[in-house]
Amino acid sequence: MAVPGQQSTAADVAVAQRADEDLRSMFGQSSAVYAALAGPDHVVAAANTAFFDAIGGQRALTGVPLARLMPELSGQGFLDLLDRVYRTGEPYTGRDERVLLGTGPDEREAFFDFSYEPRRDADGEVTGIRMIGVETTQVKQAQRLMAEHRALLEQIARQAPLAEVLDGMARCIEQLTPEQVLVSVLLADPDGRHLRHGAAPSLPDFYNAAIDGIATGEGVGSCGTAAHRREPVIVTDIATDPFWDDFRSLADRADLAACWSTPILARDGGLLGTFAMYHRTPRVPGEADLALARVFAGTAALAIERHHSEQARQVAEARAKAANEELARAVRAEQQLRAEAEQRAAAEAELNARLREAAAAQAARPHPERCQLGGSAGCTAPAEVKIADSWGDAAWGCLTHVEEAIISVRSVFIASEELGGLRAYVSR
């Protein structure tokens, strides 16, 4: 004869089992993460595909304590939360909780909204925990990227140095994208025929040096081809792609296996450079990857165009400054020439006065012993040469003062000793 209490308990257990089966069925193909944990050791009794995909498909095991299946959880607080829910029977809900999944090179940062719900038996005792969650990593990463994007736009607006903007952009993408990526920005020469290093904080120096100055053209790697075509070039496997024939050994040394390059174009369609995303393993981009490349290629275009505009402004200002300085020099030179002309005119007037005085003095003494051209200071040198001007005035002077008069006074010439100035010369 069946015991009523036992029948009730068996029925309750059956109901609980059916509930778990229903949950597994509901979440089996869902993107939501679901796992049923049993006992105080939180043994993974059941889980859906999304759970195993989140923690790594190679760990798709059941019947194993969660701490053994995911040793990286130790010290992150999640096992302590499970212990508390199991002990108290009180559920727990987390929002945008950060967790590091995997170890070593497979480690990745993830975010989840989740809840821990106690599983109970017919007597109400907690027998395990149901975990239901939704990964919010992509949303979180998108929020971070957009925040960084706004910060980059602010840098561009306040005219931060181009190298600083591009380097910050590259580091931002490398740090925030879920998959490991190495970012490179190359800048086009003014003629658009070559690409120069712009930013690549995580690529080896030897690699950056080797591709600095590569030509743009069909088949010149991902970036040279993208620049030539003015359209994205996706190389998913460098080891087999013909575009990389000339650079394959270089890429192999740098441990690069894939390269997606997007041209950076100005508003008028002119080539500004290329934006490249490198990967350590062969990889095909998703739509989110392509959208990310388009967004940041556009941001790089804005930064580069602003830089070019600033350079053009500085060149124009330098030219204007040089022109102003040249004009100032010309004005100073003209002022100096005018002052020198005035000085020469004054000297000429003074010498003319000396000539007239000398001519008057010669009426009493035709050939003086001393130079008559020394002015108020006088000159004690012998009078050796006679000069005359077109007005008929004549004077005797030393060689030094005669030379000064011939240079400074118009129409002054050396007269013969026999003549008494131009008037005597004309009357002859």
From TrEMBL:
Keyword field: Coiled coil
Ranges in a coiled coil: 306-358
SMART domains assigned: GAF (SM00065)
InterPro entries, sorted: GAF, GAF-like_dom_sf, PAS-like_dom_sf, PAS_4
Protein name: GAF domain-containing protein
Superkingdom of the source species: Bacteria
Residue span, GAF domain: 148-314
